[in-house]
Amino acid sequence: MNARSRWFVLLTALAAFTSGLTAPVAARTSVAVPVPDTTVLDGARLQHTMEHLGDPQLRAAVRALTTRADAWLGQGPWTVVDKPRPAPGGDVHDYLSQAPYWWPSQSPTSDNPWGCPYVQRDGERNPEVDSGTDRQDLEKTFDSAYDLSLAWYYTGRKQYAEKAGQVVRTWFLDPATRMNPHLEHAQFIPCKYDGRAIGIIDFSQSYTSVIDAIALLNTGAPGWSRKDRTGMARWNTAFLDWLKDSDFGRQEGAAANNHGTFYDLLLAGLAYATGDRALARRTVLDARSRRIAPQIAADGSQPQELTRTRSWHYSTFDLVAYTRLAAIGRHVGVDLWAYQGPEGQSLSRAVDYLLPAATGAAPWPHPELEFLRYAVTDVVHAAADAGDARARRAVPRLEAPPGGDLWALRPAAEQLDSITG
């Protein structure tokens, strides 16, 4: 083979290689998929983004997303029936998690195998909670379903859709492995409580992402059937009924800190997804006087979150719920960003309070066991998109979370740091 021929073969191979890198993005068009009826995400915005995937920054974001999705392909599915012992009620289909900040006060013995009584150590996560319960498997189920569904939507690769469908069906639908639609045994405390109302936050902090994942799959994902769509609609309806009518649901709805905000997010999200748009709208409207006015101070601080040992985490965490709730409000005609309380309380002011620390311009002046600057990145993006000029100027100085900044592909705030509870 002469030099010219070798160069031709090399260039042909290089062209094929680079085409293979970009084809999955370029092959996906909005014509093939209807606008998804998402609950937090803006379906029309997702479709618009799909039409512009040739943009270099978007291609980089898609690569970061597909890297995450690829990592899920060899994992799971997960199920509540795999835990070593059932929840206190004895039904293996009941979800079980353990209170993260409660620790044994005694060394375990044969007569006291748990080391009871348990005592609270705020912000210090007991490693017991990651073994023997469903908490970690729940997080993997939620995260993988979201990443895989988004990756399928943007690339059209059927393996992502098929894996997402398998993950969702196993956790929620298959009779042998499905979870019962309630949280009666979430965040139990050994020898003290079989479950607690605040355990609802195990779902409320991220289940609306799963609702959006299902909406993406409902646009025609391979392997996701009409039976699957109907089954998830029924599960969500049953779960919403439990959330509204149970003692735990009423207690969590009355919470005056981030638990109450996240409850509203879950309630509004489930209501919107199951067709009760009136309840979704009423929940968002009520959040103005029930949440923003009493929970956000005139200077933008969140006093109840600042009392925590993880004050930075909880200040950003609560705003994840607020910004996602505001996104639902957009679908039902409520502009939560425009609301101002009697002392000027607002979501924008709460985000602006975090900007000096978010940009690295000043240290965070409150207690924090582990300051992670990137925890606030999505929240600042949300404020900037809503028209907050200070947040918009801060965006270039934000710290990207591990795995990259995916805001351009899924513009809805996520909890970017790992602590839960």
Salient structural properties:
single chain; 421 residues; mainly alpha; two-stranded antiparallel ribbon; 2 strands; disordered N terminus
Description:
The chain contains 16 helices and 2 strands. It has helices at 3-26, 43-50, 56-73, 135-155, 158-173, 201-204, 207-217, 226-245, 247-253, 258-273, 277-295, 303-306, 311-331, 347-358, 377-385, 389-394; strands spanning 102-104, 118-120. A two-stranded antiparallel sheet has the order 1-2. The model is unreliable at 1-27 (pLDDT under 50).
Largest sheet: 2 strands, antiparallel
Give the % helix: 40-55%
In DSSP terms (H or I, runs of 4 or more residues), the helix count works out at 16
* Gyration radius over CA: 23 Å
Total E-strand runs: 2
Q: Note poorly predicted spans.
A: 1-27
Short recap of the structure:
Helix content is 51%, strand content 1%.
What's the layout of helices and strands?
Layout: H1 3-26, H2 43-50, H3 56-73, E1 102-104, E2 118-120, H4 135-155, H5 158-173, H6 201-204, H7 207-217, H8 226-245, H9 247-253, H10 258-273, H11 277-295, H12 303-306, H13 311-331, H14 347-358, H15 377-385, H16 389-394
Antiparallel strand pairs: 1-2
